[in-house]
Amino acid sequence: MSSRLVLGCGSAGRRIVDRLPEEGIVVVDDDPDVLESLREDGIEALEGDPTDPATLEDLESPAVVFVAGDSPSRNRRTIERVRERFPSAPVVATLTFDATPADRREIETVADHVVDSRGTVRDVAFEWTVGESAQKALALRRRLSTIDGKLAVVTHDNPDPDALASAVALVDVAETVGLEAEACYFGEISHQKNRAMVNLLDLDLRHLEYDAGLEEFAAFALVDHSRPGINDGLPEDLHVDVVIDHHPPRGPVPGEFVDLRAGVGATSTMLTGYLQRFGVDLDAQTATALLYGIRVDTDGFTREVSSTDFEAAADLLAHVDSDVLERIETPTVDGETYDTVARAIKNRTREGSVVAASAGRITNRDALPQAAERLLTMEGIDTTLVFGFLEEMVFVSARSQASDVDLGAVLRDAYDPIGSAGGHADMAGGQLEIGMLAGTDGSEADSLRSVVEEVITHRFFEAIRSRPGTPVSAYSRTSELLFSTGVEEGDRP
Predict the structure, then answer these.
(1) Same domain, yes or no, for 247 and 227?
(2) How many of the other CB atoms lie within 10 Å of CB of 159?
(3) Coil, strand or helix: which one is 336?
């Protein structure tokens, strides 16, 4: 497969060819003088009319097509032939300096991207064919184009705004290549802001039951997490077609197409780039969801934020429904959340600037991070952990403002031997299965929970005190018994 196909080599086309590496370029034009000049420079140049379907028939499928003749009407006919012959190839079209607004509108209706200035032509030629993000976009397009059937775009369990927005955006991307896709999730959307986001934006999401069959889907994509069966309801041995995530992986990542970028603050940032690469017109619904996803995962552009996040946010801002965004960010808070915060404040244990607290029985795990954030506002406190019991699971949430604490590493050191945990330096979470609580009630259950609380608190403080990367050893035989049915090593919330 040729990497770059240039159809028509007018003035802009020649500048594109000069900008690109010689290897992998094929130019098609019907001007003998142009062809001779290209061949003298070592460029593979074929004689033919780019508007003639027969000219394209024997060419291999390219990674990207540049339509770069000097006639807008002829370029349009060329693009139509390209769509017939190479339906999955992205098309970049050029316009001459004297092109009219009508010429631009005509070309924009059929091309993925249009450029019309000397500097822009050079930059776009490079970005669409040489840069890493361009190669990723081309690879994603090729992968999506090979799928025959419906694609399930799956978030992690109990998805947050970044996961929800990314799933909806990837569905939009899939539709550009004629692929039917659904944004899917397991678990619950229980945080009041997350529910407000879904309801106010009317996001098209499908809730999947953990024991439901998946036969209707021909392919699967994971967004905002990277391993099937790890914090989602998918089988661990599932064949995955696409993975897009900004978290560093904690194990082997399967997938025909994988894009992992630990240096980006949100998966929504990555999907914003793909929407632009695929020429998707941003609507208010998707743009608002993506901007909110970026703002939440970067904590208002204060946590692990990159220049790419700012650029994506700036591009989205012009399309956002600011009134809806404001309503999403100021929803009503239910009474259970206040009760969880109150119990955490009451049941806290403090060591220096670090607090660990049990919220007891909970009905909404999303209340835990809100309690952890509230405890962080206490005078002299820079690191907090709040945990709560939901059925046979213990969920933990931690927050930190300390420059010398990596919460993701701390929670992995503390709880990986007995459950699963991970996250960012200043925000992390985990889940532990408490098998011994099954079938108990009354005073026996209360007694067991008291022991579990002690174990969880001890392991957290021990991990804070220890050298990073040193797993906390078993805390008495009780730890091994209580967490003997814990989830597999490497699972991540």
Answers:
(1) yes
(2) 28
(3) helix
Domain of 297? 140-329
Determine the average pLDDT of the residues in 239-261: 90
Question: Each residue of 373-410: b (16+ CB within 10 Å) or e?
Answer: bbbbeeeebbbbbbbbbeeebbbbbbbbeeeebbbbbb
Where does a domain end: 304, 329, 354?
A: 329
Q: Which tens digits make up the pLDDT trace of 261-278? A: 988 999 999 999 999 888
Tell me the pLDDT band of 471, cut-offs 50, 70 and 90: confident
Q: What is the pLDDT of residue 276?
A: 84
Are 353 and 382 in contact by the 8 Å Cβ rule? The answer is yes
Decide: residue 441, CB within 10 A, 0-12 exposed, 13-18 middle, 19+ buried. exposed
Q: Is 398 helix (H, G, I), strand (E, B) or coil?
A: strand
Last residue of a domain, one of 260, 295, 329: 329
Q: Structure tokens of 156?
A: 């992690």
What's the domain count of the chain? 3
- Distance, CA of 260 to CA of 246 (rounded, Å): 6
Residue 161 contacts residue 289 (beta carbons within 8 Å): yes
Residue 269 placed within a domain: yes
User: Is the domain of 302 the same as that of 393?
Assistant: no
Q: Which CATH number does the domain housing residue 248 bear?
A: 3.90.1640.10
SS3 232: coil
Are residue 12 and residue 76 in the same domain, yes or no? yes
Q: Is the pLDDT of residue 493 over 50?
A: no
Indicate whether 487 belongs to any domain. no
| Across 37-51, 134-148, 280-294, least confident range | 134-148
Instruction: Say how far apart CA 443 and CA 326 lie, in whole Å.
Output: 46
Instruction: Say whether both 163 and 281 belong to one domain.
Output: yes
The amino acid present at 166, given as its one-letter code, is S
Whether 491 maps to a domain, the answer reads no
* Full strand arrangement of the beta sheet holding 64-67: 44-47, 25-29, 4-7, 64-67, 91-94, 113-115
- Sort 238 into a burial class: Cβ within 10 Å, 0-12 / 13-18 / 19+: middle
* Largest CA-CA distance found in the chain, in angstroms, rounded: 92
